[in-house]
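Good morning,

Attaching, inline, the C-alpha cells for the sequence recovery test we're adding to the shared suite. The designed sequence is right after.
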C-alpha cells in the first residue's frame, strides 16, 4: 500500500460528512511542525498554481499584460487576496469536517452537485497537465536538440514516480523544490533589477490603468483557486481553526510572490513580450548569463513537476477514500501509478496536439468562470454558513 501521512487532527465527530465513516483515522504520531501547519499548505497551493503558464510567464502575459503593467499588477494583487480568502475558508471547513479529499468537501458544500464539480475538475486536471506537459516539451527543446515530446515524456515519468508514493513522497518533493524555486526567483529579482530595473520603473510610471484588471484578477484567481483541493490531504496537520485560517491567508502571498517578481520584469519589455511563447526565455536571453539561463530553466521544470504532482495526488486521495468506503485497505502503489500514467499520457497527447499558447488562451479563461460558479461561490456561501454553525 502506498505510504500515507499518519497524522490526523482530532475534530468533533458530530458532523455527518459523506465518506467519513469509511476512513480509518489514526492518531497523531507526533506534534505537527510549524512547517506542516502553516507553510506546507501554501507551498502545495503554490505548487499547483505555478504550472506551465505561470512559471514560463505565458499565463501572466495572457491575463495581466493586456491591462498594462500597473493594471496587471493590481489584478495580481486582487487575485492574491481572493486566493487567501478562499483558501482560508476551504482549509477551515475541511479541517472541521475532516474532509481530506475534494469529494468529501464538495459533497458537504454542493450536495448532489459534487458530481458536476468532479466532472469539471477532471477536465480541468487534464488541461493543467496538458499545459505543464507542453511547457516541459518547449523548455527541453529550447535547452537541447531533443524534440518537445522528449521533455513531455520526461515530466510524465517523474510525476508518476513521485505520486506513486502518496502524501509522504509529495511532501518531501515540495520541501526540496519549493526551497529551490524561491531561491532562484530571489536571484532572478536581483539580476532583473541590475539588468533592466530602469525599464521597469519607466513602464510603471507611464502606465495607464483601465478597469480590465478587475476582470483579469477575478478570472485568474477563480480558475487557479481550485488548486486548494490539492492541499486537502495536508489539512490533517492543522490542530485548530486558527491554523487553517492562518495557513489559508499565507497561501495567497506564497503563491503570488514569484509571479509578481516575474511580472515586474516583464513590464520592462511591454508590449513586445506579450506575444512571446516563453517570456522566461525572452528575459533570460537579455540578461546574457548562460549559467543562470540554465538554472532558471531547471527551476521551471521543477515547478512543472510540482504542479503535476499536486493535481494527480489530489485525485489519488479522492480514489483512496472511495476504495476505503468499499472496505478495502487503501489505494496501492500500482493503482496510483496506473492512474498517473493514464492521465499524463492523455494530457501529453493534448499538449502535442494544441500547444502551450492555445491551451492557455482558449482553455483557462473559460474555466475561470466555471470554477467561480461551481467552487468559489458555493464555498464562500454554503461553506462559510456551515463553518459558522459550529465552534472552532
Amino acid at each position: 500500500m502506498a505510504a500515507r501521512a499518519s497524522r490526523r487532527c482530532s475534530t468533533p465527530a458530530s458532523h455527518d460528512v459523506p465518506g467519513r465513516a469509511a476512513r480509518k483515522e489514526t492518531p497523531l504520531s507526533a506534534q505537527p511542525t510549524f512547517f506542516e501547519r502553516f507553510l506546507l499548505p501554501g507551498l502545495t497551493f503554490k505548487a499547483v498554481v505555478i504550472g506551465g503558464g505561470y512559471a514560463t510567464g505565458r499565463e501572466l502575459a495572457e491575463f495581466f499584460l493586456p491591462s498594462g503593467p500597473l493594471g496587471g499588477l493590481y489584478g495580481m494583487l486582487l487575485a492574491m487576496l481572493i486566493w487567501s480568502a478562499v483558501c482560508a475558508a476551504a482549509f477551515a471547513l475541511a479541517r472541521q469536517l475532516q474532509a481530506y479529499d475534494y469529494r468529501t468537501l464538495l459533497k458537504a458544500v454542493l450536495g448532489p452537485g459534487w458530481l458536476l464539480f468532479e466532472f469539471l475538475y477532471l477536465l480541468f486536471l487534464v488541461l493543467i497537465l496538458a499545459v505543464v506537459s507542453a511547457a516541459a516539451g518547449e523548455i527541453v527543446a529550447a535547452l537541447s536538440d531533443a524534440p518537445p515530446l522528449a521533455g513531455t515524456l520526461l515530466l510524465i515519468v517523474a510525476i508518476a514516480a513521485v505520486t506513486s508514493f502518496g502524501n509522504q513522497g509529495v511532501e518531501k518533493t515540495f520541501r526540496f523544490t519549493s526551497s529551490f524555486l524561491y531561491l532562484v526567483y530571489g536571484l532572478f529579482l536581483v539580476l532583473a533589477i541590475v539588468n533592466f530595473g530602469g525599464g521597469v520603473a519607466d513602464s510603471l510610471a507611464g502606465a495607464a490603468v483601465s478597469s480590465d484588471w478587475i476582470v483579469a484578477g477575478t478570472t485568474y484567481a477563480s480558475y487557479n483557486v481550485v488548486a486548494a483541493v490539492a492541499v486537502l490531504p495536508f489539512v490533517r496537520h492543522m490542530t485548530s481553526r486558527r491554523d487553517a485560517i492562518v495557513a489559508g491567508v499565507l497561501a495567497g502571498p506564497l503563491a503570488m510572490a514569484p509571479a509578481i517578481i516575474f511580472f515586474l520584469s516583464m513590464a520592462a519589455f511591454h508590449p513586445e513580450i506579450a506575444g512571446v511563447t516563453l517570456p522566461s526565455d525572452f528575459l533570460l536571453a537579455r540578461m546574457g548569463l548562460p549559467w543562470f539561463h540554465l538554472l532558471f530553466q531547471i527551476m521551471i521544470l521543477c515547478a512543472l513537476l510540482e504542479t503535476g504532482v499536486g493535481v494527480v495526488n489530489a485525485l489519488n486521495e479522492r480514489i483512496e477514500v472511495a476504495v476505503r468506503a468499499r472496505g478495502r485497505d487503501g489505494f496501492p502503489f500500482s493503482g496510483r501509478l496506473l492512474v498517473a500514467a493514464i492521465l499524463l499520457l492523455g494530457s501529453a497527447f493534448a499538449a502535442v496536439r494544441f500547444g502551450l499558447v492555445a491551451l492557455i488562451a482558449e482553455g483557462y479563461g473559460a474555466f475561470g468562470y466555471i470554477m467561480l460558479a461551481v467552487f468559489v461561490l458555493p464555498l464562500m456561501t454554503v461553506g462559510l454558513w456551515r463553518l459558522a454553525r459550529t465552534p472552532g
